[in-house]
Amino acid sequence: MPATVTCILNSSAGAGRVAEAREHLARVFAENKVVANILVASGSEIDQQARLAVQQKSQMVVAGGGDGTVNTVAAALLGTQIKLGVMPLGTLNHFAHDLHIPADLGEAAKAIVTGSVATVDVAEVNGRVFVNNSSLGIYPRIVRERVQKQHLGHTKWIAFAQAVVWVLWRHSLLHVRLEADEKELVRDTPFVFVGNNEYQMEGLKIGERKALNGGHLCVYTAQRVGRAGLLRLAFLALTGRLAEAGELDVLHSKEIWIKTRKRRIQVSRDGEVNVAETPLHYRIRPGALRVMVPATDGGDAAAGAVRP
What we know:
The chain is α+β, with helices and mostly antiparallel strands.
């Protein structure tokens, strides 16, 4: 009998974490008589295995890893009716968190089999998918610098802290022209942040999304600010007073073009940095992805469950 579920666990999550995920998945699949193929992969193998699962007509593909792994598997599933399951094995797991997928691996495995199907949006920049956000300016530089410092032997968080200091000390402004809904915004800015749906930008829930099916991009960019201005924006955001800041622009649109003076520019997508040709074309793809989430209270706990 062919497998109805393909699970792809990212080996970079660590041997202990991957083994724990495999154990929980195997148990839940056995209890629910689901035929599954559980694989461990890394790098480009993740994309290859996800696309092979699509060719083999799996009913669901489970991404076991962080947001980068989810991004890779989601991109392979677009244009199909195949469901995405998520085992949150990364450091932050923003996508899983915003969909209320439990951090506990046993509960996450249970939601994959007995949960409900949520239809969510994805976004694209120049045809490349992201499920959370994409950015220009400071953040891609921080990521690149962090990776370099990790290669020198620093831990991820120490490397990140060093990268933030290094980039802020040397930060420069990016000249951008944003075009959306027949409107134009020209800015010299330290960053442009494009969210797949709207992010909360202040208070204790900063960086979270209330919904992933609003059908729009949310774009945030700061006007000309230096290091002190960036620290002020961060303080106002954390204290729930970002509305006091006159330096922050917020746009909502289904499609946006971003032009710069550079022919090629570093762009982050869900924490991964690539070089892209300009102008950058962002667009939302409403309801393009079907994801297994915990069954809602009072709902059909078996909605979307995979059966042989």
